[in-house]
Amino acid sequence: MRILYIVTVLLLGFILTACSNSGGNNPGGGDGGDVTGPPSNEPIVIVDRTGKEWDISHAVRNYGFNENGFQFGLGPDAIRPINDFEMVSAGEPGFPSANQNFLVIGTEINDDRRAYPIYILKTNEIVNEFFDTTHVAIAY
To answer: Rounded distance, CA 81 to CA 19, Å?
Structure first.
């Protein structure tokens, strides 16, 4: 059994080596020489709307991604989390009436139950909370 395992591992290594030398996923061949862009020692960088730079060299050189085809959204930290979410209990002002219907994400930690309305999470996506001494991020 051990000999079969060793032969299988060696054969798999040979196949992977042969594929990587024949071009594999690299459209320009094994050495990446035909991929357009800066020489392989210079980073390929794109800049998002916030001015943050992203190194895409690996994706372009090793997987043939088109550097002009990258799309990016708002950038990091564009949507601020809710810190110190204001919780209200039944009977307090602001607590929904029994005839109001809306979706919530609920959580319970150590018998502490809380519900977060989806209509609020749609615009903020993350709530940072403390349950006693446990820090929790509620994400939508």
So the answer is: 46
Query: Rounded distance, CA 80 to CA 135, Å?
Result: 17
Closest CA to 57 of 42, 47, 68: 42
**Largest distance between two CA atoms of the chain:** 74
CA-to-CA dists, residue 62 to 68, 129, 132, angstroms:
16, 41, 47
DSSP string covering the chain:
-HHHHHHHHHHHHHHHHHHHHTTTT-TT-TT-TTS-SS-TTSPPEEE-TTS-EEE-HHHHHHH---GGG----S-TT-SPPEES-----TTSTTPPPTT----EEEEEETTEEEEEEHHHHHHH-EEEEEETTEEEEEE-
pLDDT in tens, 74-120: 767 778 888 978 888 888 888 888 888 889 999 898 888 899 989 88
